[in-house]
UniProtKB/TrEMBL annotation:
Keyword list, A-Z: Signal
SMART domains assigned to the protein according to its UniProt record, in alphabetical order: X8
Record's protein name: X8 domain-containing protein
Lineage: Eukaryota, Viridiplantae, Streptophyta, Embryophyta, Tracheophyta
Domain X8 residue range list: 53-138
Pfam families in the record: X8
Length: 139
Protein backbone atom coordinates (compact mmCIF):
# COMPACT_ATOMS: atom_id res chain seq x y z
CA UNK A 1 0.00 0.00 0.00
CA UNK A 2 1.38 3.41 -1.00
CA UNK A 3 1.01 6.10 1.65
CA UNK A 4 1.37 9.67 0.47
CA UNK A 5 3.51 11.95 2.60
CA UNK A 6 4.11 15.68 2.62
CA UNK A 7 7.28 16.98 0.94
CA UNK A 8 8.77 17.68 4.34
CA UNK A 9 8.26 14.07 5.42
CA UNK A 10 9.82 12.77 2.20
CA UNK A 11 12.86 14.99 2.51
CA UNK A 12 13.32 14.69 6.26
CA UNK A 13 15.31 11.46 6.19
CA UNK A 14 15.88 11.62 9.96
CA UNK A 15 12.26 10.59 10.44
CA UNK A 16 12.48 7.52 8.22
CA UNK A 17 13.83 4.31 9.72
CA UNK A 18 15.36 1.38 7.89
CA UNK A 19 13.19 -1.65 7.26
CA UNK A 20 15.82 -4.33 7.59
CA UNK A 21 13.42 -6.53 9.55
CA UNK A 22 9.79 -7.47 9.19
CA UNK A 23 7.56 -8.62 6.33
CA UNK A 24 8.19 -5.49 4.21
CA UNK A 25 11.89 -5.93 3.52
CA UNK A 26 13.24 -3.21 1.23
CA UNK A 27 10.55 -0.69 2.12
CA UNK A 28 11.18 2.38 4.20
CA UNK A 29 9.24 2.98 7.37
CA UNK A 30 7.53 6.09 8.58
CA UNK A 31 7.61 7.53 12.08
CA UNK A 32 4.68 5.30 13.13
CA UNK A 33 6.38 2.04 12.04
CA UNK A 34 4.38 1.43 8.88
CA UNK A 35 5.86 1.07 5.40
CA UNK A 36 5.83 4.26 3.35
CA UNK A 37 7.10 3.12 -0.04
CA UNK A 38 10.07 1.58 -1.77
CA UNK A 39 12.98 3.84 -2.55
CA UNK A 40 12.08 3.84 -6.29
CA UNK A 41 8.50 4.85 -5.54
CA UNK A 42 9.78 7.45 -3.08
CA UNK A 43 12.03 8.93 -5.76
CA UNK A 44 9.17 9.10 -8.26
CA UNK A 45 6.97 10.78 -5.65
CA UNK A 46 9.69 13.31 -4.87
CA UNK A 47 10.18 14.08 -8.57
CA UNK A 48 6.44 14.69 -8.95
CA UNK A 49 6.49 17.01 -5.95
CA UNK A 50 9.46 18.96 -7.32
CA UNK A 51 7.70 19.35 -10.67
CA UNK A 52 4.82 21.01 -8.82
CA UNK A 53 6.83 23.85 -7.33
CA UNK A 54 6.91 27.51 -8.24
CA UNK A 55 9.30 30.32 -7.43
CA UNK A 56 7.59 33.54 -6.42
CA UNK A 57 8.67 36.88 -5.03
CA UNK A 58 8.31 37.37 -1.29
CA UNK A 59 5.62 39.91 -0.51
CA UNK A 60 8.09 41.88 1.62
CA UNK A 61 10.51 42.39 -1.28
CA UNK A 62 11.29 46.02 -2.08
CA UNK A 63 10.26 47.36 -5.52
CA UNK A 64 13.92 47.96 -6.47
CA UNK A 65 14.74 44.33 -5.68
CA UNK A 66 11.78 43.10 -7.72
CA UNK A 67 12.88 45.16 -10.71
CA UNK A 68 16.42 43.85 -10.29
CA UNK A 69 15.04 40.29 -10.26
CA UNK A 70 13.14 40.94 -13.49
CA UNK A 71 16.22 42.42 -15.13
CA UNK A 72 18.42 39.52 -14.09
CA UNK A 73 15.98 36.70 -14.87
CA UNK A 74 14.98 38.18 -18.22
CA UNK A 75 18.65 38.55 -19.22
CA UNK A 76 18.89 34.76 -18.86
CA UNK A 77 15.48 33.49 -20.06
CA UNK A 78 12.74 34.54 -22.48
CA UNK A 79 10.28 36.81 -20.65
CA UNK A 80 8.02 38.05 -23.44
CA UNK A 81 4.95 36.72 -21.60
CA UNK A 82 5.19 39.63 -19.13
CA UNK A 83 5.36 42.27 -21.87
CA UNK A 84 2.22 44.11 -23.06
CA UNK A 85 0.10 41.62 -24.99
CA UNK A 86 1.85 38.66 -23.31
CA UNK A 87 -0.15 35.93 -21.61
CA UNK A 88 1.10 37.01 -18.15
CA UNK A 89 1.16 40.78 -18.60
CA UNK A 90 -2.00 41.11 -16.49
CA UNK A 91 -2.11 41.83 -13.72
CA UNK A 92 0.31 44.59 -14.63
CA UNK A 93 2.09 44.75 -11.29
CA UNK A 94 5.75 44.61 -10.35
CA UNK A 95 5.02 41.69 -7.99
CA UNK A 96 3.36 39.64 -10.75
CA UNK A 97 6.01 40.38 -13.36
CA UNK A 98 8.86 39.66 -10.94
CA UNK A 99 7.26 36.40 -9.78
CA UNK A 100 6.68 35.23 -13.34
CA UNK A 101 10.23 36.13 -14.42
CA UNK A 102 11.70 34.49 -11.33
CA UNK A 103 9.65 31.35 -11.94
CA UNK A 104 10.76 31.19 -15.59
CA UNK A 105 14.38 31.39 -14.43
CA UNK A 106 13.74 28.76 -11.74
CA UNK A 107 12.17 26.38 -14.29
CA UNK A 108 15.03 26.96 -16.75
CA UNK A 109 17.42 25.91 -13.99
CA UNK A 110 15.59 22.62 -13.45
CA UNK A 111 13.85 23.91 -10.31
CA UNK A 112 17.10 24.00 -8.39
CA UNK A 113 16.24 25.68 -5.06
CA UNK A 114 19.27 27.97 -5.33
CA UNK A 115 17.77 29.38 -8.54
CA UNK A 116 14.95 30.87 -6.46
CA UNK A 117 17.03 32.76 -3.94
CA UNK A 118 17.29 36.13 -5.68
CA UNK A 119 19.19 37.62 -2.73
CA UNK A 120 16.56 36.38 -0.31
CA UNK A 121 13.60 37.88 -2.19
CA UNK A 122 12.36 34.60 -3.73
CA UNK A 123 10.57 31.70 -2.13
CA UNK A 124 9.47 28.27 -3.36
CA UNK A 125 5.83 27.33 -3.01
CA UNK A 126 4.10 23.97 -3.45
CA UNK A 127 0.77 25.70 -4.09
CA UNK A 128 0.01 26.83 -7.64
CA UNK A 129 0.02 30.64 -7.31
CA UNK A 130 -2.37 31.13 -10.23
CA UNK A 131 -5.09 29.15 -8.43
CA UNK A 132 -4.94 31.11 -5.18
CA UNK A 133 -3.95 34.62 -6.20
CA UNK A 134 -4.02 37.05 -9.07
CA UNK A 135 -0.53 36.00 -10.18
CA UNK A 136 -0.15 34.49 -13.64
CA UNK A 137 1.78 31.20 -13.83
CA UNK A 138 2.34 28.40 -16.27
CA UNK A 139 3.62 25.01 -15.16
Amino acid sequence: MLVTRTPEELVDMDRIRSAARGPHRGATWGPHARPIMSSAAQLIQLILIIRRTWCIARDVAEPQALQSNIDYACSKVECSIILPGGSCFCPNTLMNHASVAMNLYYKANKRNPSACNFNGTGTITFTDPSKHSTLCFQQ
